[in-house]
Specification:
It contains 11 helices and 11 strands. It is of the alpha/beta class. The protein has 2 domains: 258 residues, Aspartate Aminotransferase, domain 2 (3-Layer(aba) Sandwich), CATH 3.40.640.10; 101 residues, Aspartate Aminotransferase, domain 1. It has a 7-stranded mixed beta sheet with strand order 1-7-6-5-4-2-3, sandwiched between helices. A 4-stranded antiparallel beta sheet has the order 8-9-11-10, with helices on one face. It binds pyridoxal-5'-phosphate.
C-alpha cells in the first residue's frame, strides 16, 4: 500500500545501519544531522519557490494538527475551512476537519470549534467548481468573516472521500481566495505524496503553491514519520517549544525516509507508478461495457478508483462489497472509499512486479464480470 512496497531492501539496510548508531534522542533535546538532511531535501522538492522549512512528527493526523497550529500562530486567526468528503485523521482536530461522519465522527464529539465545511467539487455527485466556490462565498456571508480564517485545508486528490481529483480551476480559485483574504492554503498530501499521483507531490500537477504541505504514509516507507513543510516565515511563527513530540522525527524513520527519496529516484518509481495507473485505467475502461455498475473510472497517476452505481443511478455499496469479497477469496485485497462506500480505490505499491500486477488485474476482471 505504501509506494516503496514492503521491506524494500534499501530501506531495511538504512534502518539497520541507523539501528547500530542510535534509535532515540528526542530531536528537540539532542538534534541529529539526518533530520536536517531530510528537511533540506524536502524543502528543495516540495511545491512552491519560496524559501521553506520542514518539521517532522509521527503520524499524518499529527502533521495536520501541527499545520493548523502553525497557521494559527502565523496569522493570529482562529477559523479553519475544510471540505466535505475530506479525511484528515482521527485526533480531535483531525476529526473536526474530516468531512465524513461514518465511521470517523460518530460518537466522538464534541470537536474543536471554528471549523467550517464547504462542498468539494465532485461531478458524479453533482457538485461543480462553481457550486463549491458559491458555497464558500455563502460561508463568508453567513458563518465566518474571512478575516478570521487562518486556513483552507484540502486534499489535491481526496483519499477516503473517493479519489476525487481537484479540478485545476478549483485549486487556482482557492489560492486566489487565500491571497485576497490573507488566509493560508494547506495541501494535505498525506495520501497523495511521494509519487502516488505520477509526481512527487500532487500539487505539482497544478500551477499553484500551497503555503503549507502535510505529508506522512509513504514518506518513510512504513516507519512512523510525518512532516509539515511550508514557507519559512510561516513555519517560524510558533514560539520555541510549541511544536514537537517525544518521537517526532525518530532517527530510524528519518533514515528510512532518506532511503525512500533515493529509491523513488533511483528506480524511477514515479513514472512507473503513472504507467501502472494508466494500465489499470485502460483495463477498467475495457471492462466498462460488460459491467454496467461501473459509473466512473477516475484518478491521477497511480491513484485510481472506480465508482459503482445501480441502474437507477444510486450509489451501489452492495456491489462494491460483493466485488471486495469475491476478490478476497482469490487473494486480492481491495479497499473501498467514498462517502457512500461505493468506490474501490487501488493502492498497489509502485514497486509491484509486472507479473503480480497482471495477476491482480486478471482477478479484478474476473470478479467484476462474474
Ligand atoms: C489525507 C490524509 N490526511 C491525514 C491522514 C491521517 O494520517 P494518519 O493515519 O497517519 O494519522 C490520512 C490517513 O489516511 C490521510 O489520508
Amino acid at each position: 500500500m505504501l509506494n516503496t512496497g514492503h521491506r524494500h531492501p534499501r530501506l531495511v539496510e538504512a534502518i539497520q545501519r541507523q539501528l547500530e548508531r542510535f534509535t532515540h534522542t528526542a530531536y528537540q533535546i539532542v538534534p541529529y544531522a539526518s533530520y536536517i538532511e531530510l528537511a533540506e531535501r524536502i524543502n528543495q522538492r516540495a511545491p512552491g519557490r519560496s524559501a521553506k522549512k520542514t518539521a517532522f512528527f509521527t503520524t499524518g493526523a499529527e502533521a495536520v494538527e501541527n499545520a493548523i497550529k502553525i497557521a494559527r500562530a502565523a496569522t493570529g486567526r482562529p477559523a479553519v475551512i475544510a471540505f466535505s468528503g475530506g479525511f484528515h485523521g482521527r485526533t480531535m482536530m483531525g476529526m473536526a476537519l474530516t468531512g465524513k461522519v461514518v465511521p470517523y465522527k460518530v460518537g466522538f464529539g464534541p470537536f474543536p470549534g471554528e471549523v467550517f465545511h464547504a462542498p468539494y467539487p465532485c461531478a458524479p455527485h453533482g457538485v461543480s467548481v462553481e457550486d463549491s466556490l458559491k458555497a464558500m462565498e455563502h460561508l463568508f456571508k453567513a458563518d465566518v468573516d474571512p478575516k478570521r480564517v487562518a486556513v483552507i485545508i484540502f486534499e489535491p486528490v481526496q483519499g477516503e472521500g473517493g479519489f476525487n481529483v481537484a479540478p485545476p480551476a478549483f485549486v487556482k480559485a482557492l489560492r486566489a481566495i487565500c491571497d485576497e483574504h490573507g488566509i493560508l492554503l494547506v495541501a494535505d498530501e498525506v495520501q497523495t505524496g511521494f509519487g502516488r499521483t505520477g509526481k512527487l507531490f500532487a500539487m505539482e500537477h497544478y500551477d499553484v503553491a500551497p503555503d503549507l504541505t502535510t505529508m506522512a504514509k509513504s514518506l518513510a516507507g512504513g516507519m512512523p514519520l510525518s512532516a509539515v513543510c511550508g514557507r519559512a516565515e510561516v513555519m517560524d511563527a510558533p514560539a520555541p517549544g510549541g511544536l514537537g513530540g517525544t518521537y517526532a522525527g525518530n532517527p530510524l524513520a528519518v533514515a528510512s525516509a532518506l532511503a525512500v527519496l533515493d529509491v523513488l529516484e533511483g528506480e524511477q518509481l514515479i513514472p512507473r507508478g503513472a504507467a501502472l495507473g494508466q494500465r489499470l485505467v485502460e483495463r477498467l475502461e475495457a471492462l466498462k461495457s460488460r459491467v454496467p455498475q461501473i459509473a466512473e473510472i477516475r484518478g491521477l497517476g497511480a491513484m485510481v478508483a472506480v465508482e459503482f452505481r445501480r441502474a437507477d443511478g444510486a450509489p451501489d455499496a452492495e456491489f462494491t462489497r460483493e466485488v471486495q469479497n469475491r476478490a478476497l477469496e482469490q487473494g486480492l485485497l481491495l479497499l473501498s472509499c467514498g462517502v457512500y462506500g461505493n468506490v474501490i480505490r487501488f493502492l498497489f505499491p509502485l514497486t509491484i512486479s509486472d507479473a503480480v500486477m497482471n495477476e491482480g488485474l486478471n482477478i479484478l476482471a474476473d470478479v467484476l464480470t462474474r
